[in-house]
Amino acid sequence: MTQQQPKPAHIDWISLTLYVVFVISGLLCIYASVFKETNPNIYDMDMNYGKQLLWIVISSFIALLILLVDEKLFYAFAYGFYGITIILLLATFVIGAEIKGSSSWIRIGGFQIQPAEFAKFGTALALAKFLSGYNINFKDLKVKLICYAIIALPMIIILLQNETGSALVFASFSLVLYREGLPGWLLLGGVGLAILAVLALLFPPLNIIIFLGVLAVIVLVFVRRTTLLIFLTIGVVAISSIYVSTVNYAFENVLQAHQRTRINVLLGKEVDLKGAGYNVQQSLIAIGSGGAFGKGYLEGTQNKFRFVPEQSTDFIFCTIGEEFGFLGSLIFVILYMLLLYRLLVMAERQRSKFNRVYGYSIIAILFFHFLINIGMTLGLMPVIGIPLPFFSYGGSALLSFTILLFIFIRLDANRVNELKSFE
Questions:
Q1: pTM to 2 decimals?
Q2: Residue 298 is part of which domain span?
Q3: What are the tens digits of pLDDT across the range 212-268?
Q4: Which of 52, 181, 195, 355 is disulfide-compatible with 138, CB 3.0–4.6 A?
């Protein structure tokens, strides 16, 4: 098997350019978020921006390496990569370090890595290889169950590490399965369950059950009754009632106190501007103070005086909003949506099912991170520690997102040389 190096003309320079723009912009935002006039040295390794600069160099080297290797390696060793990430996840229970209540980190020298970040591309590769296998039909129940198992295994391990935010990211793979044939009613059902869960946290369970019962009676009165409809309606009401009770039990007995408080603050059941609601409150102040055009680079007072906690990681978008204003934030959102759209175009033009499934996995993961992170800073989503890809400070996140993206760029670059697909 001869290795076919990608020609420069075959590399998708739009996605690569957007990656470079985001990484450099992210470094500048991290620098601004922790900037000290007494220590302006961007190479200071004691500061977050100095460490991020080192991770950018490492990530760039890995990205170049990925572009140079034979793209068939990712297909051949997809399950191997997945297995390695699972082993790393399990290793945290033995040699892991607890940071901010989560035992999902492994310390190596003066650095920390989070295996949960690398499990994302490991899962994407494994899912892509399985679905692109010979005689695989997603309509088969066995195939569906195996897909769910591939996704659920790392998700459950990460949940056991008390890393709820990272675990929820794996739910984004449902969008990939939808592209491959998952019935639309299942996605709608998932949305319905989410809405029902919110209602269960806002109102007493008995009230919701009574409401569902009344709604069922109305349906049976005004819709043509059949035996199937009657049993289906009764079944939906029964399952929904059990689900509502389960949500309340899990909320009170499974979630930790600070997680319950964050959700209650988000739902408006509690006001805690000095505790769980402080981050979001300061985030909104920072973004709102930026106005239309922002205060200017390194001129953000909320950043400069450290009013926003985690301002270089989870709340990095505050720096964009405060220093570059609504216009800067709008440009950022447009560019990010452009990246997602470009990846969608790339995924749809693949002749290999492996490449397409992997491409959609990237889109789903990046979109989920983007949506939740921006939602957190605007007070529309609970604060669950989701970084903004390519922007937030963090070596593990930057490296894993770089690997995730550049594997697809490498796969896409070879599409013109494919004589046959992996299907």
A1: 0.85
A2: 8-61+68-134+283-400
A3: 888 888 877 777 777 777 888 888 888 888 888 888 788 777 777 767 776 776 666
A4: 181
